[in-house]
Amino acid sequence: MIKASDVLSYLRPEGGWVIWGDDFDSIRYDEGVVPVTKAEFDKGVKDYESWKTKNDAAKQLARQAILDRIGITAEEAALLLS
Predict the structure, then answer these.
(1) If DSSP states are collapsed to H, E and C, what string results for the chain?
(2) Cα dihedral angle (23, 1, 47, 35), rounded to 10 degrees?
(3) In angstroms, rounded to a whole number, what is the distance separating the alpha carbons of residues 82 and 66?
(4) How far is the C-alpha of 13 from the C-alpha of 72, rounded, in Å?
(5) Residue-wise over 32-47: b if at least 16 C-beta within 10 A, else e?
(6) Is the predicted pLDDT of residue 75 greater than 90, yes or no?
(7) What is the end-to-end Cα distance of the chain in Å, rounded?
(8) pLDDT tens digits, residue range 16-61?
């Protein structure tokens, strides 16, 4: 289930907003932040899953490129970071 805060993070990744619950009308913006319109928010809900899938895939490719460059596996990296 997509949360309103996830959609806002997608639409306004720089932050400057807070939301209570999952209600569009409860969004409050910091001074200088351009508010999301209801139409923009509704479109964001529709587009979020596709964006997240692409974003997650790009992150995975970047991780794998780093692992390949340093010549270790994901398991070995996890051991180093634990």
Answers:
(1) CCCHHHHHHHHCCCCCEECCCCCHHHCEECCCCCCCCHHHHHHHHHHHHHHHHHHHHHHHHHHHHHHHHHCCCHHHHHHHHC
(2) 20
(3) 18
(4) 32
(5) eeeebeeeebeebeee
(6) yes
(7) 31
(8) 999 998 889 999 999 999 999 999 999 999 999 999 999 999 999 9
